[in-house]
Design brief:
binds 1,4-dihydronicotinamide adenine dinucleotide, binds magnesium ion, 15 helices
């Protein structure tokens, strides 16, 4: 069998083989500090070496971002100039999409075609945010003066919040970087971006494009390293005005607490345990296909994954069979192998977490139905449907971040809604059904930030995304994301 890395293009391989330093103040630094190794999860072998930024490095990056912010070299560009820079960045990302896709596939394990879709989505989102750069404005406001002889005119200005620390996960690395950079750069902020320890390559590659696009020095800085080292230094830095985090609920809570301690702005996009509610009149084949996509897309490693199937008891057996049938059509394999549609878990830790939670599920009475064969090498896991799962089971409540779907039957609509809402999370939910009134009742009753009706995993640039409860604070995407990167200045003028 061809070595996995040999399937990559010469351009991707050359980038991977480089010893990577940090990107601070427009300079690609040499790899002088502690080295961090990454693995290819398709094989479990060493992939690349990057630098781990310590608190001193993080301080240098934040200071570069702060200087860039304070002297106005970027935020005082015209909105049209900021728009043009973002459009240029999107264009370059599209130009180099295949190399980005290869890097992402190799370091995370996504099938190449899936990676390519993600990269295209990232470029589309940057383009969407570019459009907002020229449409950020305050309002005129009519105050009511106490003194009737006085006239007052009020207006608001929307100003960038300052230096933003953007801490992103590994599951859709390029997209997460774009989700943070897009609004930060549209609003005129400066950024220090920290990719996840396992997936630093696409962020470093993006730095090349930031430079080529012509962003002024210091506006975007990239620091690589582990969460408790590099991430923590960033979160604790007093000159970071805003933290935008996507990752686990546990880390999100800790970051939120630290941000609260010094009143840094913070948005948290955290975990989920999203339900897929099947209504009694849903088309069975469509429901099965949607359920498999909801649970198995990206090997289940996506915060919005639909991982709890809530199904009418009368449809249970037939639907489970149809989902297993759909799962059997997946081709499990290495990310760059032709025909692969389901890659490995992204790391040894993720694979072990899936195995641990499946073990618990079995001991609590769940019935495991895994489908397919796993290659010997690499961190592969089988797409698995678990039946006989009740609301009391661990698997019903805990995020797996793997290709695992629980199935729980219901008898009445009220019972179904109760099951949908029986977790501490509230990120996404799917509803399959045709009766408009039933669908609308379910939409209103389900506690979630995002609801997909008769579809799943639609992340459109224009639609706000984020969760309620333990799934986080704030929304990304859409017009709403701008609020996270802006402060309002209220100006009152007497005349
Ligand atoms: P994590 O939350 O530890 O990592 C996410 C990002 O936060 C990474 O860049 C990491 O370096 C950084 N980080 C970690 N600890 C930090 C700290 N103390 N201070 C500042 N930054 C820190 O997630 P991990 O450990 O990779 O995955 C564990 C579980 O989290 C997964 O199994 C999944 O359930 C969940 N998760 C959810 C994601 C989502 O999209 N909502 C994304 C990634 C993980
Ligand atoms: Mg962690």
């Amino acid at each position: 069998m061809t070595d996995h890395l040999d399937r990559a293009s010469a351009a991707a391989r050359a980038f991977i083989e480089r010893e990577h330093g940090l990107f601070i103040d427009d300079v690609f630094e040499g790899p002088t500090k502690a080295v961090l190794e990454t693995e290819d999860p398709s094989t479990g072998r060493l992939l690349s070496r990057v630098t781990e930024a310590d608190a001193t490095d993080v301080d240098r990056a934040v200071q570069a971002a702060r200087r860039a912010f304070e002297d106005g070299r970027y935020r005082n560009l015209t909105p049209a100039e900021r728009e043009r820079l973002l459009l240029r960045l999107a264009e370059l990302l599209d130009r180099d999409a295949s190399v980005f896709a290869e890097l992402d596939a190799l370091e995370m394990g996504k099938p190449l075609a899936v990676s390519l879709g993600i990269v295209r989505g990232a470029a589309a989102f940057l383009r969407y945010m570019a459009g907002w750069a020229t449409k950020i404005h305050g309002r005129t406001v009519p105050p009511s003066p106490r003194d009737p002889s006085q006239s007052l005119f009020g207006y608001t200005l929307r100003e960038p919040v300052g230096v933003c620390a953007c801490i992103v996960p590994w599951n859709v690395a390029v997209l997460m970087a774009a989700w943070k950079l897009g609004p930060a750069l549209a609003t005129g902020c400066s950024v220090v971006l920290k990719p996840a320890e396992g997936t630093p390559l696409t962020a470093l590659k993006l730095a090349e494009l930031v430079r080529e696009a012509g962003f002024p020095a210091g506006v975007v800085n990239i620091v690589t390293g582990r969460g408790p080292v590099t991430g923590q230094a960033l979160v604790e830095h007093p000159d970071v005005a805003k933290i935008a985090f996507t990752g686990s609920t546990a880390v999100g809570r800790a970051i939120g607490a630290k941000a609260g301690g010094r009143l840094a702005r913070v948005t948290l996009e955290l975990g989920g345990k999203s339900p897929l509610l099947i209504l009694p009149d849903a088309d069975l084949e469509t429901a099965a296909r949607t359920a498999a996509h909801a649970a198995f897309y990206n090997t289940g490693q996506i915060c919005g994954a639909g991982t709890r199937l809530i199904v009418p008891r009368s449809m249970h057996d037939e639907l489970v069979e149809a989902i297993l049938g759909s799962a059997r059509t997946r081709v499990i394999g290495r990310a760059l192998d032709e025909g692969t549609t389901l890659g490995p878990a992204a790391s040894r830790a993720q694979r072990d977490k899936v195995a641990r939670l499946l073990g618990i599920a079995q001991s609590e009475g769940g019935h495991l139905l895994g489908v397919g064969d796993v290659p010997e090498e690499g961190y592969f896991v089988l797409p698995t449907v678990v039946t006989d799962v009740t609301a009391e089971h661990t698997l019903f409540r805990e995020e797996v971040f793997g290709p695992v779907l629980t199935v729980t039957p219901y008898d009445t609509f009220e019972e179904a809604i109760g099951l949908c809402n029986a977790t501490e999370y509230g990120l996404a939910a799917g509803i399959q059904g045709r009766d408009f009134t039933q669908v609308q009742r379910a939409v209103k009753a389900i506690r979630a930030g995002v609801v997909w009706v008769n579809t799943y995993h639609v992340y459109d640039a224009s639609m706000p995304f984020g969760g309620v409860g333990q799934s986080g604070i704030g929304r990304e995407l859409g017009e709403e994301v701008l609020d996270n990167f802006l402060e309002t200045k209220a100006v009152t003028v007497a005349f």
